[in-house]
Specification:
Blueprint: E1 2-8, H1 20-29, E2 33-38, E3 43-48, H2 52-67, E4 73-76, H3 78-86, E5 98-102, H4 109-115, E6 124-128, E7 131-135, H5 147-154
Antiparallel strand pairs: 1-3, 1-4, 2-3, 5-7, 6-7
Helix pairs in contact: 4-5
């Protein structure tokens, strides 16, 4: 079994409730073991066999079926998360302003070029593999760039 860090986007906000006990049960029912969740975020640490992308898609379908809403699910091994942190291309002036968004896939060169046309002001971003690295000049709460527009043009969640 491989340990995976599982990230589910935007739960327990805007009416999309996901009780962690139910979520742990759902993950175990899909074949995960040693399931641990982190606060009420939808993030989990699991041990699971098989294709990680297939498991992530199965979690998406199960959450939608059981709870009535769709949310993207992305997982990485601890080594992949460590590598993404080590690859962060921007000087970390304040950790609150530096982010790594895990993506569901690697965007094409054409999609990255299209996303490059989004105005960013003093914010900067760069795609490395399946991660979007961001440094906000004044924090994510006061972005110059429209991160959702960048993600839409990248064509991956």
């Amino acid at each position: 079994m491989a340990t995976r860090l599982l990230f589910i986007r935007a739960v327990n906000v805007g009416g999309a409730t996901l009780p962690m006990a139910d979520f742990r049960e759902l993950l175990a029912g899909l074949g995960a073991s040693a399931v641990r969740t982190y606060i009420a975020s939808g993030n989990a640490i699991i041990d699971v066999d098989g294709d990680p992308d297939a498991f992530d898609r199965a979690v998406e379908r199960a959450v939608e079926q059981r709870f009535g809403y769709f949310r993207d699910v992305i997982s990485r091994t601890p080594a992949q998360v460590s590598a993404a942190l080590a690859a962060h291309p921007f000087e970390v002036l304040d950790v609150r302003y530096s982010y790594i968004a895990m993506l569901t896939g690697e965007p094409s060169a054409e999609a990255v070029a299209a996303a490059s046309s989004v105005a960013t002001g003093d914010d900067v971003w760069q795609v490395i593999g399946r991660e979007l690295h961001i440094r906000y000049a004044r924090g994510a709460g006061q972005p110059d760039m429209n991160t959702d527009a960048v993600l839409r043009r990248l064509g991956v969640a």
